[in-house]
Write a structure and sequence with these properties.
The protein has 4 helices and no strands. The protein is mainly α and 150 residues long. α1 runs parallel beside α4.
Length: 150
């Protein structure tokens, strides 16, 4: 298993990839609300990248994320595999949810495989961070995919 600095570098790379995905999504979306949502998500990922870099460089002494309730919405949704400009907003959010779910599950698996407590704690905090991303996307998804008619 990698040491925790290598883990943080990998997590930073994941945040960069997520940032690029959301920026690309924002550029591809025709609908202004969709574009704005993906721009906000990109900025959030950029903030997480900065936080992880600060932790890596010892400018931040502790990394703690809020534990979010997991309603497992992403686990019940089928998502398209590829982002396209003309896809429905709910499908674009579903794809993003699946990406965050995958990242969360990867960090949990790394935590389970870790033998060192510091490393395990780092992975669990990263899993919580991704769970927060996932929950935000699930909230957006449920608000758009399951709109009620009054």
């Amino acid at each position: 298993m990698k040491n925790y600095k290598e883990i943080l570098k990998m997590a930073i790379e994941n945040e960069v990839e997520a940032y690029e995905f959301y920026k690309d999504a924002a550029l591809k979306m025709k609908d202004r609300a969709m574009k704005k949502t993906f721009e906000e998500l990109a900025e959030e990922e950029s903030g997480h990248k900065t936080l992880l870099e600060d932790y890596l460089n010892n400018e931040l002494k502790e990394m703690k994320f809020k534990e979010e309730k997991d309603y497992k919405v992403a686990e019940t949704v089928e998502a398209p595999q590829v982002l396209s400009a003309d896809m429905a907003f709910k499908d674009a959010i579903a794809l993003a949810m699946k990406k965050e779910q995958g990242a969360m599950e990867m960090y949990k698996a790394f935590a389970d495989a870790s033998k060192e407590s510091k490393q395990q704690e780092t992975f669990l905090e990263l899993a919580k961070m991704e769970a927060g991303h996932k929950k935000r996307l699930e909230d957006i998804y449920t608000a758009t995919a399951y709109t009620e008619v009054w």
